Amino acid sequence: MTQPNKQGLQVLSNYEEILVDKIEQWLKKEKPQEHILISERFRRLRNLGGAVFDYPSIKNTQFVKDILINENKLTESLLVFSTASHLLRTPTKVVALRSFLVAKFHAFSLLAQYAEGNNDLHSQALEITFSVVFTLMAENVYFSCLDDPSFSDNTKSGLTHDLIALWDSGTDLRSVRHLMALSSLWTARDSAPPSFGTMDGNTELLRISISMDTETEWEDFLKEESTNDETRWALEEFLFGLSYEEILQVRNRLKRYGVNAISHTEVRSYLDTKPIYSVLNDHDPRAIYDFFIERRDACTLRKRVNAPGPRHTLEEVYLKYRIVLEASDL
To answer: Which has more pLDDT, 80 or 11?
Structure first.
């Protein structure tokens, strides 16, 4: 069931609209008060989306028209939108879309919360919140790729248009295509707290690999990339929830004091200062984005000061790996 907003624009996908309708019908019988709140929330979301998608395509803005004649210049110009300091240089459509995605996340989070008691509807609504999170993360990955000298101009050209398509539609086909692997990665990570042990990462890697034994994409990625220092460092940050610098600090202390293993409750006492990354809450999908951004910012700082450690997050490394594979298949 598609419900266009007042401007006649379809804001949510057919699948999303059908799901919202199913949950609203269920709430009308089971939780009438919540049904009223959900109806009002999604009315506002559709109105907001209508305003956002009423803006012309990024491809038709004067900004892009002025530089479209030079593909490399377009790629460089889009990188301006990656930093908050250039907010006033960013097209309204891009800024508004980000706001819409945040509003969509909140709306479907509320929908998932109210649908508790119906496992099927609850899990479907929760899955959409994950897709929004990965769409926001995908934008960051595109910026990272466009700034990566290892990518060819031809690949960057294709990614440039994919990024523009994301801004125009509010969805990213690439992140949707790899959503299952990324979701499984997070599910496996949060299925149990890190055991830490000797802090060599092997136990954690084995645990997460077993949890994802049906994910051939992840298995292939590990086989080809896990010996790469950049990938290994990013993977350790992801697995342990500690920064590269903190992991080194803990390992040095274990070695200095002759400690063979460390427990989950002890690890933070080995740090001199408050941990850099937030404690993950596996019941809140926002924690995924928070943890990603914190690691991304740490990577950016290392690049800026030329410090050792990962220069990209595990999610960036993984999606870049997939992009390279897809480009080689063309």
So the answer is: 11
**Which of 163-172, 246-255, 275-284 is predicted least confidently?**
275-284
The larger pLDDT score, comparing residue 87 to residue 203, is at: 87
pLDDT tier at 47 (50, 70, 90 boundaries)? Answer: very high
Each residue of 26-45: b (16+ CB within 10 Å) or e? bbeeeeeebbeebeebbeeb
Per-residue pLDDT at 6: 52
227 pLDDT exceeds 70? yes
